[in-house]
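Narrative summary of target 7.
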Amino acid sequence: MQLVLSRHPDHPEHVDYYLTTDLAAAPEEVVEYYLNRWPIEDTFRWVKQHLGGEQPQAWCSGAPARAAALSLLTYSLTWLWFLPRRRATTGYRTTPWYPGKQRASFKDALAALRSCLWRDQNNRMSGTASGRRKILKLMLQALAIAA
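Modeled conformation, tokenized:
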């Protein structure tokens, strides 16, 4: 096994440790492997936590695999829907406890999608009174963030 230690130039007191069984890999490659793997792990975490990818409720033998594939597809489609809209506006609400937020998370994208779907559905079912729309807009934003 090969142990690789990595320090950031701005924070030399913090050390990251990486273990690998590839003895021919250069230390830079080992760190790069980890950095390339991180977005994949992040995707799996969001799919499991927010789309129910780890808890399929199914009776037939192939259903869990299909449920996982559907969760990953939903994740991808949510980002594909959100990214063009995010460029037009901030795409997510900044919160008082995180004023320096620079990037939207999957939870922000999912909240924006839910809000849009709920708003469209509710607009079809209700009248056009402006007071109701204001209250509804606030309610939908709160629900989308909380969901």
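The chain has a mean pLDDT of 80.
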